[in-house]
Design a protein that fits this description.
Strand content: under 5%
Shape: flat
Largest sheet: none
Structural class: mainly alpha
Protein name: TRAP transporter small permease subunit
Order of helices and strands: HHHHHHHH
């Protein structure tokens, strides 16, 4: 089963990490705008558009990556006290009640927005240069497809957990600070690791 789940996680990870570089480009663009505006007294005409396009791309394209790492916000104060089977059952119900209908609507609406934007070669109306935004709007249905694929994988994980009583392994590349602190406290409380 892992041979089926992990490749989708890897695609989500690759896309998320690729678009994470948007923050570097965004930082350079905003820094240049600040320098140009306050030192050279010549503000750019493209910085506002570039900033919302880059930040938006980073935000939406990281969704599937966050889902693959189980990093989306939930009511953890309740959820973490439940057994894995109960967690999986609740996740499964919520995926079918809210996630899949929302993502399917997101894909169809996003495709409409992107198609219309490409037909009109839409440019931004917020700056004099009017940067093109039709490529950016193409990310909307692309994000939806990535989230749909990752959602299918998450449903498979829920079914696995319902059958086995434990969650299958996930790829890990980052760790919640809370988990790191809890592990450090557990290690400090038991420095021998349970050995006599």
């Amino acid at each position: 089963m892992q041979r089926v789940l992990i490749p989708v996680d890897q695609v989500s990870t690759f896309v998320g990490k690729l678009f994470a570089w948007s923050i570097v480009i965004l930082t350079v663009a905003v820094s240049y705008e600040v320098f140009s505006r306050y030192v050279l007294r010549s503000p750019t005409t493209w910085a506002y558009d570039a900033s919302y396009i880059l930040y938006g791309a980073l935000f939406i394209m990281a969704g599937a990556y966050a889902l693959s790492r189980n990093a989306h916000v939930r009511g953890d104060f309740l959820y973490r006290t439940w057994s894995p089977r109960r967690q999986a059952l609740m996740d499964l119900v919520l995926y079918f009640l809210f996630f899949f209908p929302g993502i399917i609507a997101f894909i169809f609406a996003g495709y409409g927005f992107a198609a219309q934007s490409w037909m009109t070669h839409e440019h931004s109306a917020y700056s004099p240069d009017g940067l093109p935004v039709y490529q950016y709007k193409t990310l909307i249905p692309a994000t939806g497809v990535l989230l749909l694929l990752q959602g299918i994988v998450e449903v498979a994980r829920c079914i696995f957990c319902l059958r086995r009583g434990e969650w299958p392994q996930r790829l890990h590349d980052v760790e919640e600070l809370e988990n790191v602190i809890l592990a450090q406290h557990a290690e400090a409380a038991n420095p021998t690791g349970g050995r006599p």
